[in-house]
Each structure stands twice: as C-alpha cells, then as structure tokens.
From TrEMBL:
It comes from the Bacteria. Gene3D superfamilies: 3.30.1370.160, 3.30.70.330, RNA-binding S4 domain. Keywords: RNA-binding. It holds the Pfam family S4. The keyword Acyltransferase does not apply. PANTHER family: MITOCHONDRIAL TRANSCRIPTION RESCUE FACTOR 1 (PTHR13633). It comes from Liquorilactobacillus nagelii. The keyword rRNA-binding does not apply. This is RNA-binding protein.
Length: 261
C-alpha cells in the first residue's frame, strides 16, 4: 500500500510516523541494504505493515528478545538478506537487588532508566516474573546503563548482562470483559472500563496520564477504534477487541481485554 493511501486509514497525529517509516522503506530499497530501527511499539508495527510495498522488494521483520515481546526492533531489508536474531542487536540485562527486602515497580525502573539520560526508543520490554526483573535494550547502551544506574529509589541495584536464552516468562494477566457504552468517545470508554466518572477520565487526560496506542493525548472526545490500546497511569491498560452488537437503545457492546495495575 502506498504511503499516500495509508494516511486515510490512520489518525492525523500518526502522519509523522508514516513519513518516517516510508523514508526507511525507500532507503532500504534505494541503498539495497538492511535498515535497523529503534524499538517499535505494536501500533508502529501495524503502520509499517500497511506501508510495505506490494512489489516485495523490501520486507520487514521484528524481534524483541522473546516471543510476543511488546516492544521490538525492526529490520527493513531487501530480498537477498535473511535476518538473524543477532542482527537486531539486543542485550538482556538482569537487575540484581535485595529481593527479600525490597520491591520494585515497572514505573520505577523505567523512570530511573530515562532519568539517566536515555530515550525510550532504545529500551525494549521491562520483564518480571513477580520477583526478578530484566530489561531488553539496544546493545549499544547496555554498558552505559551498567555504569550509570546503581539505585532505583532507595534500593541499591546492579545491572548485569545475561543471555537472551535466559529471559524470564513474563507475568501478564489480561482479563476478557464485556462492556456497554453509548459512544466510542475516549472518556466514555475509560469511565466504563475502570469504573470511574467521565469527569475523572477528563482529569486524567488533562494530567497527561492517558496514552492511546503508546502516544499521550488529552482530548476526551477522541473517537476510538477496534484494536486501540489505552494505558492509564495507576489503573492499567485496555484493548478494544471486538463488537458483539448494539442494543435497542443504541448502546455498543464491546469485548475488551483489561490488564489492571
């Protein structure tokens, strides 16, 4: 699908991403070589899939260090190239800390990493099995993290490299639910899923605590679509999976997957 046609299928705020990925595809084709990206979220990979040329001259593959990783690096490549896992240039870091005496949270770990001066785009998934923690990173910044981060909050920590084959099995508990809403408005869906008022939803949006498809937004009247993913700081995530019908009163029945904090 040509990039011009793709624009109408995505939100206007995603136009810069469409342009960026189109440029990378053109670069891989014109230079006839593989192009490695930073870490991509699932929405970005959806956009890329829509942009890939029908002529098959440029292909795309992504990998995040383990099966079903949320954040993955991608490679645009010509047909002669066969990507291997090593080509994605990933490093797995194990976080050592006094497990018996301290508790860590995803937000603490990510906040500390970003506070060290790194950008989110060089950090992959932060994984836990409810006790141990690991972080997948761009191999170029692994040593920097090892050298720079020795505390998370008040807890003394140490990052160590470990084999990707030793990656943890993430403890993730999505739950399927069915909700009924009057419209596809963002504030309406948030209020129904997390059982608070639309006023509360608007306050969270105004405080930059809501992300739609991994991008912050503050418009409560944003119209949602199936497969959209909402993240609400302090509450969790919800993915709009499917519609199951409309009631006689016009209420929309939605199946959603919910991951609560």
């Amino acid at each position: 699908m040509q990039s011009e046609a793709v624009y109408q299928h995505f939100r206007s705020e995603e136009a810069p991403l469409i342009a960026e990925f189109s440029d990378l595809i053109n670069q891989a084709e014109s230079e006839y070589r593989p192009i490695l990206t930073n870490f991509l979220d699932p929405r970005e990979r959806v956009i890329i899939a829509a942009l890939l040329p029908d002529n098959g001259l440029v292909k795309f593959k992504s990998w995040g260090g383990f099966k079903d990783a949320e954040r993955q690096r991608g490679i645009f490549y010509p047909t002669y190239f066969k990507p291997r896992q090593d080509d994605f240039e990933l490093t797995l870091l194990q976080l050592r800390y006094p497990i018996k005496f301290a508790q860590l949270k995803h937000s603490q770990i990510l906040g500390t990493i970003l506070g060290s001066g790194l950008q989110r785009q060089v950090i992959g998934d932060i994984i836990t099995d409810d006790q141990q923690w690991q972080v997948v990173v761009d191999q170029k910044i692994a040593q920097y993290l090892i050298n720079q981060v020795d505390r998370i909050g008040r807890t003394k920590v140490k990052f160590e490299t470990t084999l990707l084959s030793q990656v943890l099995s993430p403890a993730i508990d999505w739950q399927r639910a069915e909700i009924s809403v009057l419209s596809w408005r963002l504030d309406t869906v948030l209020a129904m899923v997390f059982h608070f008022s639309r006023k509360k939803a608007k306050e969270l949006l105004a405080a930059d605590k809501v992300q739609l498809n991994w991008s912050r937004l503050n418009r409560p009247d944003t119209q949602l679509k199936l497969q959209d993913v909402l993240s609400v700081r302090g509450y969790g995530r919800v993915k709009l999976v499917s519609t199951t019908g409309v009631s006689k009163r016009g209420r929309i029945h939605l199946q959603v997957d919910i991951l609560k904090k």
